[in-house]
Design a protein that fits this description.
Low-confidence stretches of chain A: none
CATH class of chain A: Mainly Alpha
Number of helices of chain A: 5
CATH architecture of chain A: Orthogonal Bundle
Mean pLDDT of chain A: 96
Distance between the termini of chain A: 47 Å
Shape of chain A: globular
CATH topology of chain A: Arc Repressor Mutant, subunit A
Strand order of the largest sheet of chain A: 1-3-2
Order of helices and strands of chain A: HHEHHEEH
Strand content of chain A: 5-15%
Radius of gyration of chain A: 17 Å
CATH superfamily of chain A: Winged helix-like DNA-binding domain superfamily/Winged helix DNA-binding domain
Oligomer: homodimer
Number of domains of chain A: 1
DNA sequence: TTATTAGTTCATACATTTGTGAACTAATAA
DNA sequence: TTATTAGTTCACAAATGTATGAACTAATAA
């Protein structure tokens, strides 16, 4: 299949959403760009770990990086990422609501 | 942080998109429900493997399963999943276009 | 020049996901 | 009852992803 290659690339971009720290970063950057240390201050954890996650997200094209002097600023590559992320959050919320309804029946 | 739990749940739902076979299944189901063997016929591979992927997607609430006699029918839990998936595909396509432009400059 | 800030890269250990084939279950047909 | 169809579950090996701390680089300040 010729399409299998597309599915691999597509899944690869989607993988960039599949980690709690990366979701947190996407959430943070919805209000505009932030530099590395600002992101680190909010998320906590090791800087090496954050740096690696940001690198992955940038390589997969969901973040843009812009260096200015000592600082490295990160932003979402497009609003499509934020939109997709919000839709998946809605899917989560809908699931949790359904589970609540099931819970009440028991 | 109280939010960290949300990020974990959110990432967990997003993880369900991060595999080529699962992307292919989401693509397939955009036209409506299909039973297991119909999906297998299109995607190929081992039935045990497909079954496990479908189970994960169902558990994470992005697919619904409906048993009818011998057959197990699968469908997208909501159009939000399909929409998010299409947005991420657009992100991929935009990236590939940008790479093309860079390539031409070289 | 030396020190500091801001972040990246690397090696490695650890954890999670994935693929595989065999064994299993549940529904229907012979 | 026995066989077949349709799919699930299981155990385990292989591959991938993640966290950690130490070493590194590049830009600015003293």
């Amino acid at each position: 299949m010729i399409n299998k290659q597309i599915f691999e690339l597509h899944a690869d971009v989607c993988k960039a959403l599949g980690h709690p720290l990366r979701i947190e970063v996407i959430d943070l950057l919805q209000n505009g760009e932030l530099c590395f240390s600002d992101i680190l201050e909010v998320t906590g954890g090791l800087k090496s770990n954050l740096s690696q996650h940001l690198t992955v997200m940038t390589n997969k094209g969901i973040l843009k990086a812009r260096r200015e002097g000592q600082c490295n600023y990160f932003s979402l590559s497009s609003d499509k990422v934020a939109k997709a992320c919000r839709l998946m959050r809605e899917v989560l919320v809908d699931n949790l609501k359904k589970q609540q309804i099931i819970l009440k029946k028991i």
